[in-house]
């Protein structure tokens, strides 16, 4: 760093990346650096610096100045403005958009960045999972006093399953806002249910850390209102406990297709939040795959997907 000249500073990783990319398109090599050491749970705003070779400093400053926006003097892009559509969809405006940016950053982005100034959202997933579990448990305790502990536990597990979180994340187009590495981007990371579900939990943590428990509670209550209402109408756990494996087996037997088998094809995620992918096969031929927090949940998801492909009137977990 002693041989380089800092020509731009910002607390936004997105803005630092924009500046570096801008300079590189003009043939100017640049690096991003930070004094903040890595921690698993950074909460302070990190100052990132873009530096270039001294011989390129004057030209680099000229390039940056020529691209500054009149609406935001001092910035090349308004910090976090690209996240405003997401804020509108979730009904919450962040005081510190850096917190939201942190919550959306996948570990693939960290692995591809050498600056040391990028942090992934895995610790926020852990916190978001706990906040979500607490709020949902409180909602079920208050709205289903007639049901015993086992019934409420089963319902809670279904409501906060990876599949349910992925569906809710898709409704707000969360995948479009995830901050991914180039490799993950190229392999369709924005459409992967596991990444969307994890990002959804990290989003809950970001709201909690930025505004406290009440905004987080309000967000969760809005998002999960339809699932809770469906549970009330159908007698709680009945809304979420369809046995797709049994339904698939019955359908296959009725159509002389033989019995299904299931095999684990992948597992990913941190130790506290494993995601399993299971494939269902008939006669050795794969029919569908499904994801879940457990092998059992993933097998049910695979059976559900298989039924959807075999029979238009197959049961739907959201019906």
Describe this protein with a few key phrases:
globular, alpha+beta, 13 helices, disordered C terminus, 319 residues, 6 strands, three-stranded antiparallel beta sheet
Helix and strand arrangement:
Elements: E1 5-10, H1 13-25, E2 30-33, E3 48-52, H2 57-66, H3 84-90, H4 97-103, H5 107-111, H6 122-143, H7 149-159, H8 162-171, H9 182-186, H10 193-211, H11 213-234, H12 244-254, E4 260-268, E5 275-282, E6 285-292, H13 295-310
Antiparallel strand pairs: 1-3, 2-3, 4-5, 5-6
Helix pairs in contact: 4-10, 6-7, 6-10, 6-11, 8-10, 10-11, 12-13
How would you portray this structure in words?
The structure is a single chain. The protein is of the alpha+beta class. 50% of the residues lie in helices and 13% in strands. The strands form 2 sheets. A 3-stranded antiparallel beta sheet has the order 1-3-2, covered by helices on one side. Helix 6 packs across helix 11, helix 8 packs across helix 10 and helix 12 packs parallel to helix 13. The longest helix has 22 residues. It is globular. The C terminus is likely disordered.
């Amino acid at each position: 760093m002693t041989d380089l000249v800092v020509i731009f500073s910002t607390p936004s990783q997105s803005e630092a990346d924009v500046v570096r990319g801008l300079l590189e398109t003009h043939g100017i090599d640049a690096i991003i650096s930070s004094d903040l050491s890595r921690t698993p749970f950074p909460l302070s705003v990190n100052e990132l610096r873009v530096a270039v070779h001294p011989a390129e400093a004057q030209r680099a400053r000229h390039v940056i100045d020529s691209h500054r926006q009149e609406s935001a003097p001092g910035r090349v892009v308004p910090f976090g403005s690209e996240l405003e559509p997401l804020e509108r969809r979730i009904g919450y405006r962040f005081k510190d958009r850096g917190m939201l940016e942190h919550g959306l950053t996948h570990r693939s982005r960290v692995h591809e960045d050498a600056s040391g100034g990028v942090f992934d959202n895995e610790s926020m997933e852990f916190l978001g999972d706990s906040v979500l579990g607490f709020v949902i448990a409180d909602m079920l305790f208050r709205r289903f006093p007639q049901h015993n502990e086992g019934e409420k536990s089963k319902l809670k597990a279904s409501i906060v399953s990876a599949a349910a979180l992925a569906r809710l994340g898709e409704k707000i187009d969360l995948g479009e806002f995830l901050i991914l590495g180039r490799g993950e981007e190229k392999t369709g990371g924005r459409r992967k249910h596991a990444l969307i579900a994890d990002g959804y939990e990290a989003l809950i943590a970001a709201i909690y850390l930025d505004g406290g428990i009440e905004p987080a509670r309000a967000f969760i209550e809005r998002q999960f209102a339809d699932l809770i209402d469906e549970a009330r109408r159908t007698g709680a756990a009945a809304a979420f406990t369809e046995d797709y494996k049994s339904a698939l087996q019955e359908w296959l037997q009725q159509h002389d297709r033989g019995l299904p088998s299931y095999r684990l094809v992948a597992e990913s995620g941190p130790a506290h939040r494993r995601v399993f992918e299971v494939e269902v096969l008939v006669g050795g031929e794969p029919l569908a795959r499904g994801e879940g927090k457990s092998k059992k949940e993933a097998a049910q998801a695979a059976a559900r997907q298989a039924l959807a492909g075999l029979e238009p009137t197959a049961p739907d977990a959201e019906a």
